[in-house]
Structures are given as structure tokens and as C-alpha cells.
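Run log, item B.
One chain of 307 residues. Sequence copied directly from the ordering sheet:
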Amino acid sequence: MKQAIIDLGTNTFHLLIADRQNGHPETLFRESRPARIGQAGINQGIITEEGIGRALDVLTYFRQKLDEFGVSDEQVLATGTSAIRVARNQAEFIERVRQQTRIPIRVLSGDQEADYIYQGVRAAGALSDQTALIIDIGGGSVEFILGNQSRIFWKQSFEIGGQRLRERFMTSDPISAGSIRRLTDYFQEQLLPLANAVHQYQPTVLVGSSGSFDTLVDLYYMHEKGRLPNPEQTSFMLPVAEFYRAYSLLTTRNHDERMQLPGMIELRVDMIVVAVCLIDFVLKQYAISQIRTSTYSLKEGILSSLD
């Protein structure tokens, strides 16, 4: 029995095709492609015509892959997150995608998104009995979840994703010290509910879900070992000192210089700057001294919840 999960993120679309023959899903195909549907419209609550065009290009390619792997329409679950969730032209976008690719989109609430991310991180083996602060930094929203391997204590989705932050605060490249200060003030103001929850549940480890955290692990491996990590491994420890080595490189270099860093990919080269500013804020603000990462996130969480 095949199952395809499509995660329509604000910056990146992800396709995961798995075979669920014997209970444990075996991955047949996975790919991520930039669609940038949030670009130039996310802070206005609209998916631009260019954004719709890029989305249709990627989803037409995904449709070819679904057909190639013999996945039927009923076996496809496509989920829309922040950019689609807040778009005033959401209905038009969903209809155009359906007409051109036969892919029906289900829009997730921030709460549902946080739930699935938790399931994905747990399936990666990134959680223990310790209380963790799980963070998933998307292009449109950021999900914060407090929990351990057995349960969620608290969760909330905030519309402060990387694309929003870049368009609002990253007015120069490299980012200026003033922009970092303004970002910090903004986090302080926006994340008050998180501060209260952290105070109540006292997490001891930050667990980063996929995205920028994958790239931080790649930068670490290239620096320390001269190679990329084993693609089969789904959870990593990221030394805090190594995070700060990367932070200092990423916030003092421009696009082309960041691209030269071994382990960097085009998909993340700009968003990672505001992402590391958020991670830095969280580590300092909540006095967390351990970072773990999970290569699994939303789509793996959806897959594991279908069992």
C-alpha cells in the first residue's frame, strides 16, 4: 500500500512517497523543491501570481513522480501550512492546483501542524524523558512544542517564519547589528506565551526540527569531519559551541560568501540568517545549553500518524 505526503511549505514543497506493506513505512522517494509561495506576498496575506506559477511548476513535477510510482489519487495527502493558511486567495490557489495537478490540498491549523511536527520528531528518536523545547522554523510560521517522548505539555504556532522575518527585518546583507537588535525585541514581544510556558515546564534541551537545523548539522559535519552526515541517521547532537561558530559566520557574511561555506545549500542560504537569530534568542532567553536535531518533521509525522 503506497502513501504520498506532500508538505506545501511557505518556501519549500516536500514530497515523500512510502510503501506501507508490512506496517513499517519504507521510503521509496523523497524530494524537496523551492516554490517560495510566500515571497513578496506573505506579509500582505496573499500568494502572488508568480508564487502560484512556481507552485504549479513544482506540483506538476510531483504529479509526474506520483504517476511514475503508481500512487493513486486516494493515496495522496497534501497539506498546506502558513502561507496558504493566511492567504486571502487561498480558495483560488487550491482550486487552480486541483485543476492542473489533481492534487487536493488540506489546510492545516497551526495546532495540527505542531501536533504532526511533534509526531515526526518523536519518530526520529530525537526525544527522551527530558522535557524538550521543540522548534520547527518554517518560512511562514514557527511551531514551538514543549514535551518529551511520551507526551506534549504545551504547543503553539506563531506566524513569525523566516520569509516574514527576512522581508521585515533583513534590510541589508550581511544583516546589520541594528536589524538583529530589532529582531530580538520582536521575538521578546511576540513570544510572551512561550516565555510563560517555558517558565512552567523548564525544558533542558532544544530540539530543532529539520530545515535550517539540517543545514547547521551539515555545516558542523563538513567543518569537523570533512563529510556530510549519514543520510540514514535521523537525530543528531549539535554542540552549542558549534552553533555559535556557525552563527558568527552566517550573520557576518553576504549571500555569496555564505554559499561558499561547506555544507550550505541554495535552498537555505538566506533564511538561515534569521533562523539562527531566533535560535540564539531562544538559547539565551531560556538558558538552554543542549541542542539536538531531528531530520524528521511534518511529513514524517503525518506518515507515522497514519499507522
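Observations after the first pass:
- Residues 132 and 222 are 27 Å apart (CA to CA).
- The chain is about 45% helix and 20% strand.
Flagged for discussion on Thursday.
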